Amino acid sequence: MSTGQQLIRERTERTEWFLKDRFGMFIHWGLYAIPARGEWVRSTEQLSIEDYQPYFDEFDPVDYDPKAWAKAAKQAGMKYAVLTAKHHDGFCLFDSKLTEYKATNTKAGRDLVSEFLEAFRAEGLKVGLYYSLIDWYHEDYPAYGDRIHPMRNNEAFKRDPATFDRYLAYMHGQIRELLTDYGKLDVMWFDFSYDDMRKDKWKSEELMEMIRSLQPHIIIDNRLEGSGHQGGSIYTDNPTTYAGDFASPEQIIPPGGVKDQHGNPIPWEACITLNNNWGYAAADHTYKNAQTVIRKLVECVSKNGNMLLNVGPDAKGAIPKESLDILQEVGEWMSRNGASIYGCQASEFPKPDWGRYTQSGNKLYAHVMEESIGPINLVGLAGKVKRARLLADGSELFLTRPWSAEEFVADAFVNFARPEHFTFPLPDNR
Ligand code: FHN
């Protein structure tokens, strides 16, 4: 077996739970919740470290209750969660020994990551941490002429690029801390490579050797090498050791899902915001409704993908009510229809014009999303589907009478069983 084939086999083993769980919570939280204008505020508003310091001095998340976060995630039907341990501003939510710029040195006075991990594990969810490769605080991070870090002209970096080696030692050291001091992690979510800042620039080979030695089971995204769902060797027969275990489309669902060079599906996860910001943005009320979230989740799974749905807690540590209300409604739907998501994947049948299919073994799930005139047209299923059940209440559906969309609002599923299970007349209109 070639090295590439070995790496792909290991990736397949590692991601088995991931492809079953399908639905997770992304959590972007940090000092930027105080200005409440999104997690890029330091860059977009060209704030100096001094301008940003008051947020460090004031950070006091008195309402931080990770147990409540975990319950909300579980009730929503989420099976795993990923929290920002450090975002681009360099502020660490964990008690790193390598910096003073951390939550334990703020009025919070606590290791926010440790409490998050404990609370979500207690609810039975798998846990992951997001770690920013970019660092706007660390003095040795390159800034001069750097597109992503325009606000600082790092003279030291201009004189001696070796300063970046000091940053990499810090970065690798913090990742070692997270993989050593916080128990079993299920996901490491790196973010993000750009321009020529990728691959060996992060010393990725060395980093992956360390990661695999400490937590061999952990799955990582493709952003040490690629960008979102493009670029990188994850699509090839010869992935690098740092190609990642899943591709990470952001704010989009690729039309055909994500496939390798042969057209075979590879693991992927679309990360999506509820409004238009990852970090808390008090003025952004452009929230998607629950039906849209459900349709996005169904679309991901119908294309062999996962969805990582983001919440941005406020400066006091509370998830916005608008987000909680959506999660509540999604959870009600998932409680009735989770069988059509968990453990499901793309169907062998072509997408119908009225919605989407997901499939798990010999169970076909029809997600009827468009109002039909007359009977639902089961094109391509003639002779294959014998009986239909409404997932929400198990009631039998006769395949011959016209189905109105009211009966199939987005939370309705018709659970088609394959021939070997039932004999049942197909619609006369097929
Ligand atoms: O710059 C970040 C952004 O703040 C956010 O964390 C997203 C989430 O995937 N990733 C980067 C943008 O691609």
Salient structural properties:
globular, four-stranded antiparallel sheet, seven-stranded parallel sheet, 430 residues, disordered C terminus, alpha/beta, binds ligand FHN
Describe this structure in words.
The protein has 430 residues and is of the alpha/beta class. 27% of the residues lie in helices and 14% in strands. It has helices at 3-14, 16-21, 41-44, 49-58, 66-75, 112-122, 155-159, 163-181, 204-214, 290-302, 321-337; strands at 23-27, 80-86, 126-132, 187-191, 219-220, 269-273, 306-311, 345-346, 355-360, 363-368, 388-389, 396-397, 413-417. A seven-stranded parallel beta sheet has the order 5-4-3-2-1-7-6. The longest helix is centred in the middle third of the chain and has 19 residues, at 163-181. The chain is globular. 46% of the residues are buried. The model is unreliable at 401-430 (pLDDT under 50). Bound molecules: ligand FHN. The site of ligand FHN has 8 residues, from loops.
